[in-house]
Amino acid sequence: MSFTGKYELQSQENFEPFMKALGLPEDQIQKGKDIKSISEIVQDGKKFKITVTTGSKVMKNEFTIGEESELEMLNGEKVKAVVQMEGDNKLITQLKGIKSVTELNGDTITHTMTLGDLTFKRVSKRI
After folding, report:
1. % residues pLDDT > 70 (the chain)
2. pLDDT value at position 105?
3. Is beta strand 90-95 parallel, antiparallel or unpaired with respect to 84-86?
4. How many whole angstroms separate alpha carbon 12 and alpha carbon 33?
5. Cα separation, 41 vs 59, whole angstroms
6. 94 vs 3: CA distance, rounded Å
7. How far apart are CA 47 and CA 62, in angstroms?
């Protein structure tokens, strides 16, 4: 199953508490909470390029499944991590104590990030 495509955010849960836990300033949290971000994913075998545009902020990450890569977190911090693929539709990684799971089902991507007992969930649809 190919992740390639453009996806628009449809809904999210626990955005504000999760961003506060990451240390984002309150003004950035308020600005970002209602913006429908667009994620563009290009998959070439085990190589991925992911661009997330949220208003004027653009976050780009490139990685190869099973290889260490430098990834930008939601708070702008760059960390080294290894992304693994489970089955043909699930990407899993750990970023500084955050478990990140991105699952593709048909035209819907569900991205869940867990930090301690706090879970941030985003659901996006292919456009």
Report:
1. 100
2. 97
3. antiparallel
4. 9
5. 12
6. 20
7. 7
